[in-house]
């Protein structure tokens, strides 16, 4: 396959995402106002509580079996590595750019949590459907692609709500400087939304004072902070974060849906009753799958609508934004290639080229929508 053919195969799925995102941006404009703040808020809730869980349950139940879980054991570990490496790069970034205290959690969250779910469900099957796909038979490739992307989405949902949410909460320190800056401004409209609006209702996105963690270094007798090594600081931060993990957020609807989907797919009697084509309760599965099909378009539209406010103004330093882009699109992918090659060398990544492609792709996606 020539370079031009490979470029076209890679371009088509990305172009699809960009077009749907552009539609969301247009619908959010004031002249059209079909995806204004209030509409996005309601659509967020529908996605968070209904569409995304339905997508996870139906895809996992259909594509994940006991044998596939055994075969794909390295993927959860690989996703964990993306979070750990991304967090380390995020810490380096906030040191270099001197990121304001109230934005450090967001920066680390964006560097660590990638869009490992719905974006892979768009990109990987679309690559398989191309006539010049390098992954063999399109039917087999598409089936495997959905299985890989579904497992990636389920594992990433757990890590996002358990790890990334805790990191953002831990760094959500309400500095007096930040408070005074916003108190002097006009009170915002309650229906207005943020350019970083997450795909969850406001009851989940509020971070209470009890859940925020202020990580301080121990003081010497003279009252001065002791100098600690970089790794000791990381260990101290991790301990503080782990002690403040909110189980309510860990077991968000998407996490519960992933657990149910695994059970339905792995347990053979349930699969025969619910999932197989001749199953007596197959209509329940098909109904869930039908609802879940709306999740990806809705999330992509919301992402495009959220971009509108960010394009108008942003309090985030341009250098920080460039740094996050560099971490997610340059440094993480390069490290991901090394990790995947090492995993293949030691026999942990299997022999399926599509599986290895997905493992590398998990290092090369933009930040998760939920961040």
Write the SSE topology:
Elements (H helix, E strand, L loop, with lengths): L2 H26 L8 H27 L2 H6 L2 H24 L6 H9 L5 H12 L8 H33 L5 H8 L18 H4 L24 H14 L3 H4 L2 H14 L1 H7 L7 H11 L2 H18 L5 H28 L7 H9 L10
What would the keywords be for this entry?
371 residues; transport; mainly alpha; transmembrane helix; membrane
Describe the structure.
Involved in cellular auxin homeostasis by regulating auxin metabolism. Regulates intracellular auxin accumulation at the endoplasmic reticulum and thus auxin availability for nuclear auxin signaling. Belongs to the auxin efflux carrier (TC 2.A.69.2) family. This protein is mainly α. 68% of the residues lie in helices and 0% in strands. α4 crosses α7 (138-170) and α16 runs antiparallel to α17. Mean pLDDT is 80; it is low at 174-199 and 201-224.
Could you give a short description of this structure?
It is built from 17 helices and no strands. The protein has 371 residues and is mainly α.
Number of helices: 17
Strand content: under 5%
| Terminus-to-terminus distance | 37 Å
Question: So what's the overall shape?
Answer: globular
Uncertain segments are 174-199, 201-224
Structural class, by secondary structure, is: mainly alpha
Largest sheet: none
Order of helices and strands: HHHHHHHHHHHHHHHHH
Average pLDDT value? 80
Helix content: 55-70%
How many strands? 0
Radius of gyration: 22 Å
Pfam families: Mem_trans
Function: Involved in cellular auxin homeostasis by regulating auxin metabolism. Regulates intracellular auxin accumulation at the endoplasmic reticulum and thus auxin availability for nuclear auxin signaling.
Membrane topology: Multi-pass membrane protein
Keywords: Auxin signaling pathway, Endoplasmic reticulum, Membrane, Transmembrane, Transmembrane helix, Transport
């Amino acid at each position: 396959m020539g370079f031009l053919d490979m470029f076209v195969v890679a371009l088509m799925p990305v172009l699809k995402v960009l077009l749907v995102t552009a539609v969301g941006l247009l619908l959010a404009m004031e002249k059209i106002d079909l995806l204004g703040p209030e509409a996005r808020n309601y659509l967020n809730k529908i996605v968070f509580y209904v569409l995304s869980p339905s997508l996870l349950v139906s895809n996992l139940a259909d594509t994940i079996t006991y044998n596939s879980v055994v075969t794909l054991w390295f993927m959860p570990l690989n996703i964990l590595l993306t979070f750990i490496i991304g967090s380390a790069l995020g810490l380096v970034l906030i040191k270099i750019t001197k990121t304001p205290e109230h934005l450090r959690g967001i920066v680390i969250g964006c560097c660590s949590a990638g869009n490992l779910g719905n974006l892979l469900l768009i990109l990987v099957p679309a690559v398989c459907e191309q006539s010049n796909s390098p992954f063999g038979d399109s039917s087999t490739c598409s089936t495997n692609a959905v299985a890989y992307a579904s497992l990636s989405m389920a594992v990433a949902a757990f890590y996002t709500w358990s790890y990334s949410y805790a990191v953002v909460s831990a760094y959500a320190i309400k500095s007096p400087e930040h408070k005074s800056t916003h108190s002097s401004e006009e009170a915002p409209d309650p229906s207005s939304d943020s350019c970083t609006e997450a795909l969850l209702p406001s009851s989940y996105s509020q971070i209470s004072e009890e859940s925020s963690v202020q990580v301080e270094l121990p003081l010497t007798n003279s009252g001065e902070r002791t100098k600690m090594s970089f790794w000791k600081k990381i260990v101290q931060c991790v301990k503080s974060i782990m002690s403040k993990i909110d189980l309510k957020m860990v077991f968000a609807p998407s996490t519960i849906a992933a657990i149910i989907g695994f059970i339905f797919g792995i347990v053979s009697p349930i699969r025969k009753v619910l999932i197989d084509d001749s199953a007596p309760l197959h209509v329940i599965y098909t109904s869930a799958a039908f609802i879940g099909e709306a999740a990806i378009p809705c999330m992509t539209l919301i992402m495009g609508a959220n971009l509108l406010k960010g394009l108008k103004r942003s309090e985030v330093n341009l250098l920080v934004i460039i740094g996050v882009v560099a971490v997610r699109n340059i440094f993480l992918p390069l490290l991901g290639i090394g990790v995947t090659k090492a995993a293949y060398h030691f026999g942990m990544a299997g022999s399926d080229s599509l599986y290895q492609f997905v493992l590398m792709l998990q290092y090369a996606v933009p930040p998760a929508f939920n961040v």
